[in-house]
Write a structure and sequence with these properties.
Helix content: 40-55%
Largest sheet: 4 strands, antiparallel
Distance between the termini: 103 Å
Number of strands: 6
Structural class: alpha+beta
Oligomer: single chain
Length: 200
């Protein structure tokens, strides 16, 4: 009787041990299977770029029957060098208004005139950038993600984008680096000097 109890006890522990090992193996397989692939990361980066509406400013457009339509071959190429912009009323801007160009790739306001950057994979865009540079743009609002450079000008909403996680920024960067290169050196921003301090 005692031998039977010992044998049953040993069998019980053996079955429990085997089940525990099998469960652990299953959990490991599930964890491995759940890890996103590089393709999944690119798709998520593309989704984030669409959700953040990066194309509205960074993709040149033509006026179509329903308003501005993205030019596919210039997607993410930023404000195109040599684009002739319509005239604007200087008094309106001096009164504090900000005015967008018809395709939203340039804006003029009290700070001066800014142009949307080329964020395509070309070397004139972000093709030569490091991920750290890209993070610095979104986290600190630094022009081209370099230390000791001017701040990014409006309307780039980097102060909202700084709330993205490192993982999200990595996926966005990976997607943009996978886009079709658009060769375009964006014009230099025209920055107005700050107003003189008020007299007391």
């Amino acid at each position: 009787m005692r031998k039977t109890i010992i044998i049953l006890g040993m069998a019980f522990f053996a079955v429990t041990f085997i089940n525990a090992c099998n469960n652990q193996a299953t959990e490991t397989k599930e964890t491995t299977a759940a890890a996103p692939s590089a393709e999944d990361n690119l798709k998520e980066g593309e989704r984030l770029v669409a959700a953040l509406d990066c194309e509205i400013c960074h993709s040149p457009k033509l006026m179509g029957p329903r308003g501005p339509e993205i030019i596919p071959e210039l997607r993410f190429g930023g404000h195109q060098a040599g684009t002739v912009l319509p005239p604007y009323d200087e008094k309106t801007v001096k009164a504090g208004w900000a005015l967008f160009a018809p395709d939203f790739t340039s804006i003029i306001g009290p700070w001066g005139q800014s142009y949307s950057g080329n964020i395509s994979s070309d070397s004139t865009g972000i093709g030569m950038w490091t991920e750290e540079q890209f993070k610095k743009v979104l986290r600190e609002g630094k022009y081209k993600g370099l230390d000791n450079t001017r701040p990014i000008l409006p309307p780039m909403p980097w102060e909202a984008y700084k709330n993205l996680t490192n993982e999200e920024i990595s996926k966005i960067f990976a997607f943009l680096k996978s886009t079709k290169p658009v060769k375009n050196v964006v014009p230099t921003a025209k920055i107005n000097p700050p107003p003189p301090p008020a007299k007391s």
